[in-house]
Structure formats: structure tokens, C-alpha cells
Amino acid sequence: MATYQGILLHLIFSLLLSHDKLDLQLTQVLPEVPSQLLVSLVRTCLKRRMFFYPSILAQFKPGFDPDVFIWLGIEEVKRFDLSLYKVCRHARICDAKLLEGAPDFSPRRGPRSLSGSLLSLTDLQFSVPDRDELWHATSDLAAKITGNEAAYTNENIEDNWISQTARVLQPRDQQFQWI
């Protein structure tokens, strides 16, 4: 996870240093090397199913790992995934050829537009991260999570996944992306 986070930070800094003007979609063109990194990072994350809640949860062993560590690990992945999604929404790849020829591990259906984002809301198959107050908790974090385990489990059911909003927020025939 630390390597992926480091690559994501590099991509964010590349966007900040870019002097490309924003288009109507509020996106910037990434230089060649960061474009290659972004495409590789997204494909790797899709291949490892890092955007799919059951796969995220499978990385941990309930009963062996303390609940607080499981919660922290899941929340770390969710926040990374959302950050990567935001970078993908803000960046354009310098060369559309980078998107050709490689396998597509995305669960979304239908053709992908070369001008479109590498990630879609339909790729985000997990619920929104938990509220920030738990991140700012002091030594009683484990007790709060253990006492609220059922509520946390219920928040992560498929009906609450971000991908469920794609029908409303990103219809297929619409060119402008709202989120």
C-alpha cells in the first residue's frame, strides 16, 4: 500500500507542477512518464480488485487481526481509492496509445472513451469511508469500533457502494461528468 501511495503522491505533485491550462472538464494533461505511471497504477489496482469491498476485506483475517486493525486497513484502502479516482478525474493521459492493447480489468460494461477517465464511479465497489471522528479518536478507538461493529458492517453492504450512484450521476449518454 505504501508504494501505491507514493506513486499517487508523485502523480499529485505532477499535476500541481503542470502548467497546462484546464479545459471545460477541469482536467490537465499529465506528462508522458506520469501518464504511464497513472495508467499502470490504475490497471494494477483494478487487477488486484482494490476497488471491490469483498477483496479489500479478504486481505484481513477476522479473529486473527484485531478489529481496529481491520477497520484501519479497510479505511486506508478506501481513502486511497477515492484519492486515485479524484486524480483520474483531474488528469488526462498525454497519449491515448497508452490505453490501447492492455487488458481492461474494470467491471464497467461498454466501450471506454479514450478521452474519458481511467476510473468510473462503477469501478468504486465499496461504501464511502467512515466518518472522520473515528480517525481523530484517542486511545478508545478500538472500543468505539468494537461497540459499533454491526453498524460498520451494515454501512458496507452492496446497496451502499459508491458504484450504485453511477446510474444517476454518470449516465452512459452524458458527456459531462458531474463527479
Q: Secondary-structure blueprint of this entry?
A:
Layout (H helix, E strand, L loop, with lengths): L1 H16 L10 E2 L2 H16 L5 H6 L8 H24 E2 L39 H4 L5 H7 L1 H7 L10 H4 L10
Parallel strand pairs: 1-2
Helix pairs in contact: 1-2, 1-4
Short recap of the structure:
The protein has about 180 residues and is mainly alpha-helical. The chain is built from eight helices and two strands. Helix content is about 45%, strand content about 0%.
Key words describing this protein structure:
179 residues, mainly alpha, 8 helices
Polypeptide structure, described:
The protein has 179 residues and is mainly α. It has one domain. The protein is 47% helix and 2% strand. It contains eight helices and two strands. Strands 1-2 form a two-stranded parallel ribbon. The longest helix has 24 residues. About 4% of the residues have low confidence.
Indicate the multimeric state.
single chain
Strand count, sense and barrel status of the largest sheet are: 2 strands, parallel
Radius of gyration: 17 Å
Q: What is the element string, with H for helices and E for strands?
A: HEHHHEHHHH
Distance between the termini: 25 Å
Number of helices: 8
Give, in spatial order, the strands making up the sheet with the most strands. 1-2
Indicate the mean pLDDT: 79
- The geometry reads as elongated
> What percent strand?
under 5%
* Domain module tally: 1
Helix content: 40-55%
Count the beta strands. Answer: 2
Structural class: mainly alpha
Poorly predicted spans: 109-115
Signal peptide: 1-18
Keywords: Signal
